[in-house]
Amino acid sequence: MFQKLKKYQFLFEELVKRDFKKKYKRTILGMGWSVLSPLLQLLVMTVVFTKFFGRNTPHYMIYIFCGTLNFNYFSEATKGGMRTIMGNAGIFTKVTVPKYLFLLSKNVQSLINYGLVLVVFFVFVAFDGLAFTWKFFFLLYPICCLILFNIGVGMILSALFVFFRDIQYLYDVFTMLLMYLSAIFYTIDRYSYKGQCAFLLNPIYLFIRYFRKIVIEATIPTIWFHLLMAADVAIVLGLGCFMYKKYNTRFLYYV
Amino acid sequence: MSVLEVNDVSIRYLTGDFKDIGLKEYVMRKLTRNYRVTEFWADRHISFKLEKGEMLGIIGSNGAGKSTLLKVVSGIMEPTEGWVKRKGNIAALLELASGFDGELNVKENAYLRGAMLGYTRKFMDETYGRIIEFAELQDFQDRPFKQLSSGMKSRLAFSIASLVQPDILILDEVLSVGDGAFRKKSEEKMREIIAGGATTILVSHALSQVQELCTKVLWLEKGNQIAFGDTDIICGFYQQYLDRKIALDQAKTELERGTE
Fold this sequence. Notes:
Number of strands of chain A: 0
Oligomer: heterodimer
Mean pLDDT of chain B: 82
CATH architecture of the largest domain in chain B: 3-Layer(aba) Sandwich
Strand content of chain A: under 5%
Structural class of chain A: mainly alpha
Distance between the termini of chain B: 23 Å
Mean pLDDT of chain A: 88
Radius of gyration of chain A: 19 Å
Number of domains of chain A: 1
Helix content of chain A: over 70%
C-alpha cells in the first residue's frame, strides 16, 4: 500500500498542481476568489435575512457562516468530484493509472479552499467577540469526517455519472434541496421534537451543528452525536469504495 | 517462459443498455417498448503467446478489434472473458496526441505525462532537457499546449514515452509520427528499443512495414482471429484477401491447414 502511494506520489502532486492552475487561470484575483466569493455570499445572506426577514438570532453572522462554510465545501468537492472520471477519460483510456487519484486531487483542491475560508471564519469569530476555548480543537473531528464524507460521496457520484449523465442535473436540484434542509439560515427550535430529530438524519446538518455547538455555544456534543457522524461517514465511504471497486474496470466501456 | 500470453480473450461492448443511454431515454424506451440491448464483441477468442525479443504485427481492416486488443494487452481494459499474463513493464504508445491538457504549457504537460507513465520526479528533472531536445520543442516550452500543432503534440508524446527501456512495447501506428525528418528519428529510436530486447507489438496498415519488421503476425477480422503465426505466409494470404483474390473463409481454412 505504502509502496503504491510512493509510486503515485509524483503523479498525485502533478494532478493537484494541474487542477489548481486550471482553476485560477485568467482570473485577476486568482486565489483571492476562494475567500472573496464565500464572503460575498455571507454578506448577501446576512443582509437579506436580518434586514428583510428581521431575524435576530444571537451571533447570526457566525451562525450562517458555520452553515455556508461547511455546505459550500461539501457542494464544491462533490460536484467537482462527480466529473473527475468523465473529465479525465481521455487520459485513462490511454494510460493505466488509478482513477481515484483524479478524484482525490480534486478533493485536495477543495480542501485547500476550505482551509482558506476556515481561517477567515476564525477571524470573524474573533471579531464577533466569541471566546476561543480549548474546545475548538474538537473541530478537527467534524473536519476530518467531512473530508472523508466528501470523498465517499465523490466516489459514488463519479461512478454514477459515467453510467448516467442525468445525474448532474438531478444532483444540482438535490444539493439545493439539501441546502434548504440543512438549517443554514434558520433555527430549528420552532419545530416539534420529532421534527428536530429528523434534522439529525441529514449528515450535512450534523457537521454544521457541530461547528455551531463548539463555536457559538461552547459545548462539546454528546458521544452519540459523534457516533452518528462517524456512522454516516462509514456508510458513505464504504459504499463509495464498493462502487469504485466494482465499476472501476467497467467505466472504460462507457466513457 | 513467454513474456506475454493472451489466452482466449474476448471483449464485449454493450450499446443501448441502461448505463449507455441514461435515465430519461431508458424510461422512454421502456414505455414505447423499444428497449433493446445490443452486444458487440470487439474481440472474440483471441489467443497468442510471445517470447522475449519477438515482434508481433497485428493486421486487419478497420474495426477488426486491433486497438481494443492493444488496450487489453496494455492493461487499460479488462477482458470480458479470458486472461492476459504479462512479465515486466509495458510501454504503450496508443493514439499519442490525446490525453494532454490544452490549458497547461509544454513543460507542465511533459511532467504530468511522465508522472502517469510512472516515472519519478527526479528522473523527469534529469531527462526533461533530453525530451524537449528530442521532440525539437525548445522554442515552445512556455506555450499553452492548445497552441501547438498536432505533429508537435505527437512528437512530445513520443519523446516522453520512448525514454525508458520497456520489456513490452506496444505501438499503435505510431511509426508515422510527425514530419519526414522526425519520422526517421522516431523509427531509429524504435529500432533501438527493439534491439534492446523488448517484446514488441505493432499495429500497422502498412503491410510492407509489418513484413520487414515482424517475426510473428496476428490477423484479425471483425473481432475474430483469422490466423497467428509465420509472417510471410499470413501476409501473403492477407495481401490476396485485400486484392479480393481469395475469400476470408478460404484463407482461414488454408492457413489452418498450413499450420497443422
